[in-house]
């Protein structure tokens, strides 16, 4: 790992505030990053203090004035080079993601690939920031709309996708002409340092002004500064619903804009018409991938009563084959939870589930002994419940899968929708009527609805996000870029008269 840290230019003690030029001094205290893989201290990072934070915002504002003048396709060219750099750093960065966050190496590389994909997307987008033209009701008038950059974008990201979610936001923001200030999760600060270093190298080579890519490390307080700051027209926040409610309220109170991508409580409906083997793989990967710490993790399986027992038996057998251990060893399927607090939350959810009447088809527990010294490795478990249990209505970031039985497809959809969150959903069925019903306006109420695919693993080309307590924001593909720009409607009179709209006459 020492060699990986060296390749990514990470020291034992790192400054945590940068405008893309020098790293700034700050006295905000230190974050120590311990790996959940082996419990070892990897390195530490200085947190931003208010003075360093203000210096960053001022630099970002200054950089915006220059950056917005650069033609969008030229900004796209720089993002193209960022994609190239990420291809070069895929191996060390993927390993750092895996070691600092605990996801499997496969998924660590997958996350860097997701960054590369969004770079490619953003390069194309840089020539497609289209506005519409309209026909004016007045003669010799032209009417159209343009999309202009917003300014400084604040990005608050979560530990579970410590690099990809930042890149969804920043790559779009940059081609749109915005500048970015990133607050990475305080649980994965080194991933932030590594990305900042990679970007700085590319930006420097291209003479990009200092302040286009900024980073401010820290905890909740730094998030509060970003949310309350009138110099920051847009804050994009990914994380828990609790955090999102605070950010959303603070940003709205000053008439700023926010993009919120918050908790999920995602279900797969397993119909009696499902391909059972395919459903099994989808359900297991959805539930235990990233040790149940994706916002798209499959938390509930809503299974038709006629296949319930068979599917449960197959699921339990599949779970018993899972190898839990060091995520850098590619033989393992499941790595650790992020930290001991997460382990406590896992146990608390199991306890609440039992108390509320759930029973366990497969018991959980923490693993002990050699290789498990960090205390963060838990057994994925399976509980049989009804949907209305308080714990089932709640998103627990851990590999706990709830099984629920249904009789009719209408009932299954009502159960799937019957939670406060609305991120991702899926149905496993070979029956066309069922599939179309699930996708119809009467079907899933989520931002993502899949057929014969699990709930996680969305591609970057689609808009990513969800409804209800998930926050309503959209990041990544499709036309999510519009949230990073302001729309201007232009009407231009090239005639010699001044006719008024709505037929109003006004003569002097
Ligand atoms: C998240 O968990 O915050 O769809 C993002 C997925 C990934 C992104 C997850 N592409 O599972």
Shape: globular
Associated small molecules:
2-aminohexanedioic acid
* Class computed from helices, strands and strand pairing: alpha/beta
Strand order of the largest sheet: 3-2-10-9-8-11-12
- Compute the average pLDDT: 98
Radius of gyration: 24 Å
Assign the CATH architecture of the largest domain: 3-Layer(aba) Sandwich
Strand content: 15-25%
Q: How many alpha or pi helices? A: 14
Contiguous low-pLDDT stretches (5 residues minimum) are none
Largest sheet: 7 strands, mixed
| Distance between the amino and carboxyl termini | 80 Å
Helicity level: 25-40%
Verbal overview:
By secondary structure, the protein is α/β, with parallel strands linked by helices. The protein has 2 domains: 2-262 and 471-488, 3-Layer(aba) Sandwich (Aldehyde Dehydrogenase, Chain A, domain 1), CATH 3.40.605.10; 266-460, Aldehyde Dehydrogenase, Chain A, domain 2 (3-Layer(aba) Sandwich). Helices cover 37% and strands 21% of the residues. It has 14 helices and 24 strands. The protein has a 7-stranded mixed beta sheet, with helices on both faces. Strands 15-16-17-14-13-19-20 form a 7-stranded mixed beta sheet, with helices on both faces. Helix 7 links the parallel strand 9 (179-183) and strand 10. Helix 5 (105-125) runs parallel beside helix 6 (164-176). The model has no long low-confidence stretch (mean pLDDT 98). The site of 2-aminohexanedioic acid has 11 residues, from loops.
